[in-house]
UniProtKB/TrEMBL annotation:
<dbReference type="GO" id="GO:0006487">
    <property type="term" value="P:protein N-linked glycosylation"/>
</dbReference>
<dbReference type="InterPro" id="IPR029044">
    <property type="entry name" value="Nucleotide-diphossugar_trans"/>
</dbReference>
<keyword id="KW-0808">Transferase</keyword>
<keyword id="KW-1133">Transmembrane helix</keyword>
<keyword id="KW-0472">Membrane</keyword>
<feature type="region of interest" description="Disordered">
    <location>
        <begin position="117"/>
        <end position="140"/>
    </location>
</feature>
<dbReference type="InterPro" id="IPR052261">
    <property type="entry name" value="Glycosyltransferase_13"/>
</dbReference>
<dbReference type="InterPro" id="IPR004139">
    <property type="entry name" value="Glyco_trans_13"/>
</dbReference>
<keyword id="KW-0175">Coiled coil</keyword>
<feature type="transmembrane region" description="Helical">
    <location>
        <begin position="7"/>
        <end position="25"/>
    </location>
</feature>
<keyword id="KW-0333">Golgi apparatus</keyword>
<keyword id="KW-0963">Cytoplasm</keyword>
<protein>
    <recommendedName>
        <fullName>Alpha-1,3-mannosyl-glycoprotein 2-beta-N-acetylglucosaminyltransferase</fullName>
        <ecNumber>2.4.1.101</ecNumber>
    </recommendedName>
</protein>
<keyword id="KW-0328">Glycosyltransferase</keyword>
<comment type="pathway">
    <text>Protein modification; protein glycosylation.</text>
</comment>
<comment type="function">
    <text>Initiates complex N-linked carbohydrate formation. Essential for the conversion of high-mannose to hybrid and complex N-glycans.</text>
</comment>
<keyword id="KW-1015">Disulfide bond</keyword>
Length: 488
């Protein structure tokens, strides 16, 4: 706790001093707007640095606490050992205890090493302070000004990560622009071997904390989700804080990617950094099954209030916001809560740029069989970086979207199915209750679930898809005023 308090106090002091200086200047000179801007920039940079330092310190603190826990355990075993007498009967027991003891000692040693490494890490500070002083952060842009976007591949114990890596490397337009970082959890030897074979085509990092996680008894069967959350937190800290990247795309180890995967993220990057109402770009359309998408419109993109995941891009700023409160498990449903989402949206494509080729392990196998495996992967290359995507900025998008949805012809499910609709253009199927939404989605083969009240791929309550040659909006009434989080 002392570590943290000291850094918080120190940080506050710096901020206070700079703020006072700023106020003082403000009173002294009225006409120096430029200086003021500079100072304001410096303050916000300082603020960011302090925030980063606090997060780093928290990491350290967690390491120390974990170490204390291990030490206690060690002492407990030692005490147990002394209580036992040395009779033949207890030999086996003693042997086991001794074995446990040495395992624990190893753990403590590696923990200590890790903490020490962390303390001596000059690179981290160098990266951060470079940003602070010169405003040219490391690993943010190529010399020609185009962005560097790290690809973070999240891996555990599936050697099929090879399939994903082969595609990522084959399609990658530039190693410098898209450095691949494979973060491996689980200490799985075969998977590590597979990743190691790629040599310097990627950076292979391993999540060092393999200790048992404390899990409430009722949630024991969800252990995997706890491990995933811990791994994500560590891996994202590495990418954004230690390696100093400012943008990353997270790819799970079971994803196929489309030919224009990189082009899609590069093209949408300016939207993500310019539009503060966006917090992610996702490669995934939750309702992107063949038969529900327009196969002739791979260029089409949308905004969605539903966080899709499954191949998604985020910025360091977002990570700095989420990291301090990162949950112990179920991070994807957590991120979808209003407290985290704060009304922000993601970009998603008409036709997915990723597809999962099979989930073994933590995720629900049934979900894969019923839905995921029918998602269509785009096959056509779309030159997004050469297109005008400003229609996706909130100010442009919302007006056009609401107009299109609520000026469209209202139809029923059976009319849509029969194909006997005379009016041209998009159509709308209204829903007013949770149950009528669910009934209609079941008939159409759409996803019927809600997370924090938001339906999959929904925007302003509207789920947009393609059916029988028609653009269709499954839409609430025009006076819709927000999601009802009791809909689940
Ligand atoms: C030694 O460790 C194993 C597994 O970690 C555990 O089941 C066992 O109870 C431990 N033995 C003692 C004596 O602590
Ligand atoms: C948005 O950001 C990009 C890159 O950061 C920049 O080049 C562009 O001019 C900005 N504005 C728009 C409207 O895209
Ligand atoms: C891009 O599209 C927007 C409308 O969404 C339009 O206002 C703008 O002029 C276009 N920009 C260019 C360079 O064509
Ligand atoms: C939904 O479907 C069920 C049975 O299929 C029906 O009983 C119910 O009335 C429907 N609800 C709405 C709101 O359409
Ligand atoms: C919104 O419109 C629906 C029907 O279009 C109506 O039943 C409902 O009462 C309206 N709600 C509000 C808050 O005006």
């Amino acid at each position: 706790m002392r570590n943290r308090s000291v850094s918080i106090i120190f940080g506050s002091l710096i901020l206070w001093a700079v703020a006072t200086y700023f106020l003082f200047l403000d009173q002294q000179s009225v006409g120096k707007d430029q200086d003021k801007d500079k100072l304001a920039n410096q303050i916000s940079r300082l603020e960011k640095q302090v925030k980063q330092q606090i997060i780093i310190n928290q990491e350290l603190l967690e390491g120390i606490n974990e170490n204390k826990r291990l030490k206690k355990e060690y002492e407990r075993i030692n005490a147990a050992l002394q209580l036992k007498d040395d009779t033949e009967k207890n030999k086996d027991k003693k042997h086991e205890v001794n074995k446990n003891k040495s395992i624990l000692l190893q753990k403590i040693e590696s923990k200590n090493k890790k903490i020490l490494e962390n303390e001596q890490e000059p690179t981290q500070d160098t990266i951060l302070s470079t940003e602070g002083t010169h405003n040219t952060p490391l690993r943010q842009k190529l010399p020609d000004g185009s962005p560097i976007i790290a690809i973070l591949v999240v891996s555990c114990n599936r050697i099929t990560v090879e399939r994903c890596l082969n595609q990522l490397i084959k399609l990658r337009p530039s190693k410098e622009q898209f450095p691949i970082v494979v973060s491996q959890d689980c200490d799985h030897r075969q998977t590590a071997d597979v990743i190691a074979r790629y040599g310097n085509q990627l950076l292979h990092i391993k999540q060092p904390d393999q200790s048992d996680i404390e899990i409430p008894p009722k949630e024991k069967k969800f252990r995997g989700y706890f491990k995933i959350a811990r791994h994500y937190k560590w891996a994202l800290n590495q990418v954004f804080l230690k390696l100093g990247y400012s943008t990353a795309i997270i790819v799970e180890d079971d994803l196929d990617v489309a030919p224009d995967f990189y082009e899609y993220f590069l093209g949408t990057y300016p939207l993500l950094v310019n539009d503060s109402s966006l917090w992610c770009v996702s490669a995934w359309n939750d309702n992107g099954k063949a038969g529900l998408v327009d196969e002739h419109a791979p260029h089409l993109l949308y905004r969605t209030d539903f966080f899709p995941g499954l191949g998604w891009m985020l910025t360091r700023d977002l990570w700095l916001e989420l990291a301090p409160k990162w949950p112990k498990s179920y991070w994807d449903d957590w991120i979808r809560q209003p407290e985290q989402r704060k009304n922000r949206a993601c970009i998603r494509p008409e036709i997915s740029r990723t597809r999962t080729f099979g989930k073994l392990g933590v995720s629900n196998g049934l979900f894969f069989e019923k839905h995921l495996k029918y998602i269509k992967l785009n096959e056509q290359f779309v030159p997004f970086t050469k297109m005008n995507l400003s229609y996706l900025l909130k100010d442009n998008y919302d007006i056009a979207f609401v107009n299109q949805v609520y000026q469209s012809t209202v139809v029923s499910y059976s009319e849509l199915k029969s194909g006997n609709i005379v009016a041209p253009g998009p159509v709308r199927i209204p829903y007013y209750t949770r149950q009528s939404f669910k009934n209609t989605t079941k008939l159409l083969g759409l996803m019927d679930d809600f997370r924090s009240g938001v339906p999959r791929s929904g925007y302003r309550g509207v789920v947009t898809f393609f059916y029988n040659g028609r653009r269709v909006h499954l839409a609430p009434s025009a006076n819709w005023s927000g999601y009802d989080i009791t809909w689940s």
